[in-house]
Write a structure and sequence with these properties.
The complex is a heterotrimer of chains A (95), B (303) and C (253). In chain B, 36% of the residues lie in helices and 19% in strands. With 303 residues, chain B is of the alpha/beta class. Chain B folds into 2 domains: 142 residues, ATPase, nucleotide binding domain (Nucleotidyltransferase, domain 5, 2-Layer Sandwich), CATH 3.30.420; 144 residues, Nucleotidyltransferase, domain 5 (2-Layer Sandwich). Chain C has 253 residues and is α/β, with parallel strands linked by helices. Chain C has 2 domains: 104 residues, ATPase, nucleotide binding domain (Nucleotidyltransferase, domain 5, 2-Layer Sandwich), CATH 3.30.420; 145 residues, 2-Layer Sandwich (Nucleotidyltransferase, domain 5). Chain C is 41% helix and 21% strand. In chain C, helix 3 packs parallel to helix 5 and helix 4 crosses helix 6. Classes of the chains: A alpha+beta (95), B alpha/beta (303), C alpha/beta (253). Chains A and B meet through strand 1 of A and strand 10, helix 6 and helix 8 of B. The complex binds iron/sulfur cluster (2 copies).
Chain lengths: 95, 303, 253
């Protein structure tokens, strides 16, 4: 499943997409994220799935544009810590 | 399912917080004898505006109720299930498994499990619209959800937007207020224009409202302003849908699903016609929850 | 040489007349329904305050969202360069300008000459600019001017969950119903706007000194929230709403 966490508002699309078929629930994205965006646990959108999976926590879901902005400077953009930490390539950002 | 529904007779009072007027009602299928059943399961959907309870008897729709959500979620859950059970002789103890869903899902005191509306909507939509439905758009009072699912009602992709009022019932309410048009008349009125105007250019409800005020000052009639906003709203929702890749068949649920002005324009932009259902689309979430409850009870008995 | 700067914003129009780097006169007129008429009025007001005739002004330079359609202008500059120009004129050590108006917030990094190095916008979402505070003041039934001083009397930071100006209005109403002190709500509102502006400032990366300009910088509660969030001093000119017009006037020399 492609789980899109985030939002669209007047200023653009701000979604983090998790490919839950790729995510193995390792949680490597959690310690590297300064914004405390991720949590690993039961898949809230697939109650019949057994393996844990990453989700975006509720407190961050509606302000990703702001939470993630320190990781996304306008110039000299380094790869995002979360995307880089994710070996199975399950995470993508829409902006 | 018969068409016999009881009207509790309280549903049509206008109230500031509620913009989609609808009737509270309940229904149960007298031809089913729940006492012989293997599994009795229930789904409770506690939304921000309305709450539904659905009871399945061996995965057949037995009873449901639909009413407004009170201030207290546990209380609303109790009221919803009690009303659904009314006159059936069933009590809470006769229900083997209950799943809560919706915004107040963790506050359903008698539920064994809480499942998100996304999963429940897909599952319920699969039954309501049939297994050919692949894309479900749910436009509620405070959020907008887009779900793509497979032929068994399993979610393949989804997104939920509950950050921004644009594209929700709340955004439409702001416009209905601005123009003093009853919310339920917005759709039809917006379709009464001879020629489609250009959509309002701002997405933001606040800025769109200033834009609309300027158009009114320029002398635009109300229906034209509404058409411009409904078109903008439709366009915005379509761009949201693109993220999950729309596949047919396509269905629209939720309050805005009853606004023809938005629905028609979405259909036009997508080049698809939304499926119809004989069920009330408001029970999709609770129905899905009850189906999960049925499956989880089956799984529990096996283990 | 006398030059004039005209800043046509979403809500107000500001005019500043400058000679040799000194401000001769300024005026402010609400944009209202007819922006052109309001612009002409603002120009008239400034001229009569300075006791000047229109031909005494060598050049009028327009800036702001309405600069393209300005009826009296010889030239135009972007809001970004006008803001940088004006801020560095007022505060020579300023290297970061935070400009928050009714409908837009901007952060600009500039050099000692007021040249723009980098900038970022918060736009098209009312939650990231002054309009947000305005809507919440309405819900609190106070004027926008009262909101700031009120917030300074708050004893407790209450969280605001809504990230949208429309939903936040309902949240404020709920908070009022729940008897949350209005002072605390006012602070929550200004903290919310400030936090969005601050993340934009961090995105551009800021260098001291930081100057806060634009109409929202008149709000002491917002200034306090910015200082708290940035954990540093910020400079605020006496009349922050005129800095854009000043910068435009200076660019005409
Ligand atoms: S971009 Fe940074 S803050 Fe955002 S989720 Fe990734 S690691 Fe966390
Ligand atoms: S764009 Fe407007 S309606 Fe959407 S979140 Fe921002 S303030 Fe709210």
């Amino acid at each position: 499943m492609i789980a899109n966490y985030g939002y669209k508002d007047g200023s653009g699309d701000f979604f983090i997409a998790v490919d839950t078929d790729k995510c193995d629930g390792c949680g490597d994205c959690i310690p590297v994220c300064p914004g405390k965006v991720f949590a690993v646990g039961e898949d809230p959108h697939d109650p019949l799935r057994e393996e844990p999976v990453v989700t975006v926590v509720d407190e961050q879901r509606r302000k990703l544009k702001y939470t993630c902005s320190p990781c996304k400077p306008d110039r000299d953009r380094a790869p995002l810590p979360c995307v880089q930490a994710c070996e199975p390539l399950a995470l993508t950002h829409s902006w | 399912m018969s068409d016999k529904m009881e009207d509790a007779g309280v549903g049509t009072k206008a109230c500031a917080e509620e913009f989609w007027r609808w009737k509270e009602y309940r229904h149960h299928d007298e031809s089913i004898d729940w006492r012989d059943a293997q599994i009795v399961s229930a789904g409770i959907d506690i939304g921000s505006v309305s709450s539904q309870a659905v009871i399945l008897v061996d995965s057949k729709l037995f009873a449901f109720s639909n009413q407004r959500t009170g201030f207290d979620s546990p209380e609303s859950a109790n009221k919803a299930i009690n009303w659904a059970m009314e006159g059936t002789g069933m009590t809470l103890d006769d229900i083997h498994y209950t799943v809560g869903t919706g915004y107040g899902r963790v506050n359903v005191p008698f539920a064994q499990k809480a499942i998100t509306e996304i999963a429940c909507h897909a599952r319920g939509g699969n039954l309501m619209y049939g297994p050919t439905v692949r894309t479900i758009l749910d436009m509620g009072g405070q959020d907008c959800k887009a779900i793509r699912c497979d032929q068994r009602g399993k979610v393949e992709a989804f997104l939920m937007n509950d950050k921004c009022a644009a594209g929700t019932g709340r955004g439409m309410e702001v416009f209905a207020d601005l123009l003093s048009v009853p919310i339920q008349d917005v759709g039809e009125l917006s379709l009464s224009v001879e020629q489609e105007p250009d959509p309002v250019s701002s997405t933001c409800v606040v800025f769109a409202k200033s834009e609309a005020s300027a158009l009114l000052r320029e002398g635009w009639p109300k229906n034209k302003v509404l058409a411009a906003y409904c078109a903008a709203m439709a366009h915005r929702v379509v761009t949201l849908l693109e993220r999950i890749e729309v596949e047919k068949d396509f269905a629209i649920t939720g309050g805005i699903g009853k606004n023809a002005g938005v629905v028609k324009r979405i259909e036009m932009e997508l080049g698809l016609t939304a499926l119809q259902t004989r069920y009330d689309s408001q029970i999709a979430g609770a129905l899905g929850a009850a189906l999960f409850a049925n499956a989880l009870e089956g799984k529990r008995r096996k283990s | 040489m006398i030059t004039g700067g005209i800043d046509i914003g979403a809500k107000t129009i500001k005019v500043v007349l400058v000679e040799e780097g000194k401000i001769l006169a300024k005026s402010l007129v609400p944009a209202g329904l007819d922006t052109d008429a309001a612009t002409n009025q603002a120009v008239e007001d400034a001229l009569s305050a300075a006791n000047l005739k229109k031909d005494a002004v060598a050049r009028f330079i327009a800036t702001g969202t309405g600069r393209k359609t300005c009826p009296v202008t010889d030239n135009e500059v972007t809001e970004v360069s006008a803001a940088a120009n004006g801020a560095v004129h007022v505060f020579p050590n300023c290297r970061t300008v935070v400009d928050v108006g009714a409908e837009e917030g901007r952060t600009i990094r500039c050099n000692e000459e007021g040249k723009v190095i980098d900038f970022a916008f918060n736009e098209k979402c009312a939650a990231g600019a002054g309009t947000f505070a305005e809507g919440m003041a309405r819900a609190l039934e106070v004027s926008l001017e009262e909101l700031g001083p009120m917030s300074l009397r708050s004893n407790e930071a209450v969280p605001m969950n809504a990230q949208c100006a429309v939903f936040a209005e309902s949240e404020v109403v709920t908070l009022i119903h729940n008897k949350t002190p209005r002072e605390d709500i006012a602070r929550a509102v200004l903290d919310a706007v400030a936090s969005r502006i601050i993340s934009m400032v961090r995105k551009v990366g800021f260098a001291p000194d930081i100057a806060l300009i634009g109409g929202v910088a008149l709000n002491p509660g917002f200034i306090a929230a910015m200082k708290r969030g940035l954990e540093t001093e910020v400079l605020v000119p006496e009349e922050p709403e005129y800095v854009g017009a000043l910068g435009a006037a200076l660019s005409g020399i």
